[in-house]
Here is the input.
Amino acid sequence: MTTTTKSTRATKPGKAFDGFSTDERAAMKEHAQELKNSARRSPRTAKADGEADVLAKIAEMSETDRVIGARLHDLIKASAPALTPKLWYGMPAYAKNGKIVCFFQSAKKFNSRYATLGFSDQANLDDGTAWPTAFALTTLTPADEVRISALVAQAAS
Here is the structure.
């Protein structure tokens, strides 16, 4: 007697699972290219090259995201100078000892209605049993900048 197994992945009735979305595949391709580029760089120039890559990626963004991304870049560099700028899945990110601590995802990246400042599990933000790891951004006010600077400094500590 033969048995057949069904996939446990939920799909819409009558529609097969197509795998990753076009945006997800593009992000993975960007990440593969980032890994190749970083492997080719000398350790002495990696930080400067990473920052140039991040600034170039920010320059490609829509006007709203470009303004937020550029301001976040300045805030993160000032609040946590130990973090190294680098690209991560095609997004500006900031790493400590090679591990991503925080990243900026433009609204267009996955066709979202807002940009996102996210923190990885490497960020030192633990506070009790629950804490936020991503923040939606539509604009940056002076109060937002103070809060973000404090969060980034804590995350990098």
In short: The beta strands are 84-88, 91-96, 99-105, 115-119, 134-137. Residues 3 and 9 are 18 Å apart (CA to CA). The mean pLDDT is 86.
